[in-house]
Predict the 3D structure of the following.
Amino acid sequence: MLDPYRCYHGLAMAEAARRFRISILIEAPFRGWLDRAALRRLAARVLRAEGVAPPAEVGLVVTDDETLGDLNRRYLGLDEPTDVLSFGHEPFDPSTTLRAGGLRTEPFVTPPDGVRRLGEVILSYPTAERQAREAGRSVQEEAAHLVVHGLLHLLGYDHENPEDERRMRTREEELLGQRAH
């Protein structure tokens, strides 16, 4: 006899394996100012467009300038706030990076649950707000740009030299469907 719980549970697990897990933490002062669902859809769209196979997980964090400044100082040695930082859970290995797109081709270790944990994208709401005002767009649009930028970093893109910067900006604009800079 079929156990309905096991059938449902098995179907739910199979469905979860076909999706991305995108957790979003917006710190208290900034809650209600960004559309979480839109950011989640955008992140999933970027992951699909970049060829990331589910199940995969990424975290998005919206915080303040002080937190980004502290992280920038501790991990990059830069004593200044920034708009977005990415912290990958997969080690960067140039031998597994495609030069054409910058996408890592293999995860370091797949956890027992089979979920590829890409890392965290952390953005500063106050900086996004300032940059949005300067660019003449909404904070939601600026946050979307920062999320795409951060995700591309997690996937191996960078802007350390002019060619890499051009490739990354072009990809950001393709994914956002608008001029991103």
